[in-house]
Amino acid sequence: MNEPSVSLPFDPSGIVLDRRQGLTRQLYQALRARVLDGRLGSGTRLPASRDMAAILGLSRNSVVRAYDQLYAEGFIESRVGDGTYVSQLPKLSTKVSTKMSTGLSRGLSTGLSTFLLGNTGDSSSKVIHNAPIFRLETHHLPTPRSGPPRAFRVGVPAFDLFPFEVWAKLQAGFWRNPHAQSLGYGDPAGEPLLRELIAAYLRRSRGLSCTPEQIVITTGAQQAISLCAQLLLEPGVGVAVENPGYRAAGCAFGLTGATVHGVAVDSEGLDCTALAALKNCRMAYVTPSHQYPTGVVMSLARRLELLAWAERSDGWIVEDDYDGEYRYSGAPLAPLAALDRSGRVLYVGTFSKVAFPALRLGYLVLPKQLVEPFSRARALMVRHSEAGTQAVMAQFMAQGHFQRHIRRMRRAALSRRNALIAGWPVEIPGVGALPEMVAGLHVKVDVDNPERERWLVEKALEAGVELNGLGDYWLPGTVDKTAGLVLGFAAVGEAGIAEALGKLRKVWNG
Questions:
Q1: For this UniProt entry, which segments traverse the membrane (predicted)?
Q2: Which CATH number fits the domain that encloses residue 81?
């Protein structure tokens, strides 16, 4: 039910746009900033797109695109027959936390064999506040599938579209005559040029205002998550992870001796009410742009709730934006970190879903107060990342190949998604319809019970088709688990998707 209309006046003063830059992006950022800092309060009525265009001297199309992005992210809402209003949203404070784990000086926990993902069967594996608490065992660590990609492998992009010829030329150019400074010990935070280009890319494509100094290069997203765990958690401190979710993150947190709580995910993302009920919880790990593996996009209201939780609890949020480049309607959504006004979000990015996982190249965007300790810790652990890959990626980005490749990959993923939609077998007993897929490289399909889920996965593997059961993503000790199938649709082309769907239809109907 809509809130009563509060016709507060719109004040365009202070909105100054640079005509040499993208006007749609500038207007979107200006309006978003005013909503977040309260200058545009909840219930404020915005001018119609035509009127806004006249006020600011823009084309109506520029205003419509800016409004569309604000609609997609939940900042504004349309009331039928009554115009466009700022959504009802909570306010955030601006207090900045500087508290860190003292574990950096003590070193890592030595109890590694105790804290591994799995269920030891002891009394600590129980449900408290509806959140499973679990211990970890090495034989339950998730292992990504290897070998040539095939339908419907989860977690890999379209390898066949990567411009390897361009990459090979750039790499050969670097090693043919490398600078002497590139051959010694490098900056632990990463190559300065690459960090500068990543910061520019995030500002332009994500609306994430950050400086190169806030970026630390890592060997993939998993190392970034592990650094967050090792520096910000202590034994016994609570950390919340999405359930179902990315179990390797839970492993990284558990290895520090932290108490890992699985928190449910609903249609708006992580259940912040359940999160708030956890005691001594200092960190939350989330995938808000495209929840892994359910595909839910976290609502703006839920994002603000999560940020408010971090402020109240003096906690941290680790945001894993593993496939944020892939959105099929409008621009990619601004990350949670772009809403952070108090220095509590650590943003994890990766090149694995745009290039290929074997590249082992990722990055962290850190609150400013964490940059030095993270760089120092990385210097102690691995000294610095391999120089050649960083230098080649920097040239790949600087010469425009990266942006062109992203556009190509997004078009291909959309086409492959459509091929999956067109050929999905709708007549299989106990298997739901494909949900709407607005983002990402995989989809979760509902199944009526876990036994059927296991049977479907087994039959698919017998036919040479890879599927993941939703059971692979639940934490041990979880009660009331739902069943489903998780399918990646980017690994092979449209013909391969059609062939795989034909095999599934045959074995599942047999």
A1: none
A2: 1.10.10.10
